[in-house]
Amino acid sequence: MNKYLQDLIKLSKFDTAISMFEPKIEKEKAKLATFVETAEAIKASINTLYLEIDDVKSKRTKNNIHLSELKTKLDNIAKKNKDVANDKELKALQLEEEIAKEQISFANEEIERLDNLTVSKDERLKELQAKLAVEEEDIKEIQVAVDNIIEEINNDRNSVYQQRSELLEKFDNKILTFYEKIKRWAKDSAVVPVKKQACYGCFMKINDKTYAEVIKAEEIVNCPHCGRILYKEDEEKEA
Q1: CA 208 to CA 206: how far, in whole Å?
Q2: What is the tally of structural domains in the chain?
Q3: All residues at 6 or more sequence positions from 34 whose CB lies less than 8 Å from its CB, including other chains
Q4: Cα(239)–Cα(237) distance, rounded to whole angstroms?
Q5: Residue 148 lies in a domain
Q6: Could you give the CA distance from residue 202 to residue 221 in angstroms, rounded to a whole number?
Q7: Range of the domain at 226
Q8: Whole-angstrom Cα distance, residue 182 to residue 227?
Q9: Which end of the chain lies in a sparser environment, N or C, as judged by fewer CB atoms within 10 Å?
Q10: CA–CA separation, 104 and 63 (whole Å)
Q11: In a domain, 36, yes or no
Q12: Is residue 12 part of a domain?
């Protein structure tokens, strides 16, 4: 095989490997992000619950104040009953007393409802706090695992970069410029194999003459359809 073609194949494989490192890292980060998003959602729910509990307690305080005012009102009505001068005043006081008692009953019912609601929200809050604690422990474990994997990926990437640099030191500048021009639009498929007499960049069938030149591998051959650099893989690899 032509030496320049061999170098191009190696360079192309290095570039393909390098372009795959970042997606691998992002994939590992995404695993962690899923758990972090879950934890953040739980935190948001906890904060919302705190606000709801504060609101319920505020309403209970208002009802307590109102209840105290109503009891004071009943005491005043009882005092006024002693100074009633006629039936009309008596009936008015009795009506006022009846309304106050109904309001007291409603206030007590509302306080009971608010207390039950507070208990329910407190229980839910404890559940979410426990769930958050578990998620945060999982995050710590996954963070360690992800960091280790990313470190391995970076080590592999540095190794590939090193091998690529060593290859470029002895690379022919004209061939490299030629490769870079194709790579500019073809990305990681600037150099592709031919399988079943088809270019594995554009997947178009190449003619017999071009295919024969690719098999000989004495010269650098471009796909007549897309312009990518072609090479023939070993039979085992192709199979």
Answers
A1: 7
A2: 2
A3: none
A4: 5
A5: yes
A6: 15
A7: 173-238
A8: 8
A9: C
A10: 10
A11: yes
A12: no
Question: Taking the model in full, what pTM does it have?
Answer: 0.67
Whether residue 150 is found in the same domain as residue 177: no
My answer on whether 87 and 28 are in the same domain is yes
Sign of the CA dihedral 197, 203, 209, 214? negative
Closest CA relative to residue 7, chosen from 206, 235, 173: 173
CA dist 24 and 34 (Å) reads 16
Structure tokens at 1: 């095989």
Buried b (16+ CB within 10 A) or exposed e, 172-195: eeebbebbeebbeebeebbbbbbe
Domain limit, last residue, from 169, 202, 228: 169
Q: What spatial distance separates the first Cα and last Cα of the chain, rounded to whole Å?
A: 20
Helix axes 3-81, 87-169, angle to 10 degrees: 170
Give the C-alpha separation, 53 to 129, whole Å: 15
Structure tokens at 35: 């758990």
User: Residue 237 has what pLDDT?
Assistant: 54
Quick one: tokens of 205? Answer: 């069938």
Tokens of 159: 């190794």
pLDDT digits (tens, 9 = 90+) for 93-146: 889 889 999 999 999 999 999 999 999 999 999 999 999 999 999 999 999 999
Tell me the CB-side half-sphere exposure of residue 125, using CA atoms within 13 A.
Answer: 15
Among 147, 144, 126, 227, residue whose Cα is nearest residue 181 = 227
- The CATH number for 120's domain is 1.10.287.1490
